[in-house]
User: Which sequence fits this backbone?
């Protein structure tokens, strides 16, 4: 997939290094570069790029201020020499955060994520609510801790009052949305509503056994047991059948 890209970076040396990395990815067309936020804003308005390589620390205005100026924000990869802005960058829905000097392998991984995100963005939605994909990432902040989690790595969701607990890789932070709101965005290919309280990722099921009154009991990879309601048990059997 071809992608139009723009670099906004005040260092000429850093711009040249990025251009050398970009040359190794022929699917990327570099349509312009700018050395400050105001010129970057004009360039983005003129070229409407798919991908933005953005420095954070620049004279007068920083990279975050540029994103706040834009109505339509391109897929953004931050490039910076400082790691203290990582958490803040994901609050701006950045795709990735690359530390200078940029490693060629990390750069290639970021480009692969950008391609996936652009493909997802260009796919026509099957309904009015666009769903995430297994490769989509979500930013979760619970108290002082933050995570950037791939949807496919989440094993299940569970109602806690008006909010939702998320389970992945031994973590279980709170997502401040209702389970119904979460369900609307999840890819149906992987996730299944087991009952009124829980949604499970079928890739994380280790065991299924018959339970009382036509129900099923599912064991997840982390050992949690989920009871599938009678109605949903019929749907589950249909979903998982050949």
Assistant:
């Amino acid at each position: 997939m071809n992608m139009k890209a723009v670099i906004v970076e005040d260092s000429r040396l850093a711009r040249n290094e990025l251009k050398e990395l970009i040359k190794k990815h022929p699917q990327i067309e570099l349509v312009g570069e700018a050395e400050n936020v105001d010129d970057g804003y004009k360039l983005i308005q003129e070229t409407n790029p798919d991908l933005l390589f953005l420095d954070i620390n620049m004279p007068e205005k920083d990279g975050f201020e540029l994103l706040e100026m834009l109505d339509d924000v391109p897929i953004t990869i931050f490039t910076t020499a400082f790691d203290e802005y990582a958490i803040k960058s994901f609050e701006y829905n950045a795709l990735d955060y690359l530390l200078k000097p940029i490693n060629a392998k990390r750069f290639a991984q970021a480009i692969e994520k950008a391609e996936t995100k652009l493909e997802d963005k260009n796919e026509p939605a099957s309904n009015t609510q666009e769903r995430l994909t297994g490769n989509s990432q979500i930013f979760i902040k619970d108290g002082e801790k933050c995570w950037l989690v791939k949807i496919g790595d989440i094993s299940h969701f569970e109602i806690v009052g008006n909010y939702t607990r998320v389970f992945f890789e031994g973590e279980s932070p709170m997502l401040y949305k209702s389970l119904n709101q979460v369900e609307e965005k999840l890819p149906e290919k992987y996730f299944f509503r087991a009952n009124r309280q829980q949604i499970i990722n079928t890739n994380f099921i280790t065991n299924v056994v018959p339970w009382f009154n036509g129900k099923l009991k599912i064991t997840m990879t982390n050992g949690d047991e989920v009871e599938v309601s009678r109605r949903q048990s019929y749907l589950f059997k249909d979903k998982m059948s050949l």
Remarks:
- The CA atoms of residues 119 and 181 lie 24 Å apart.
- The first strand starts at residue 3 and ends at 8.
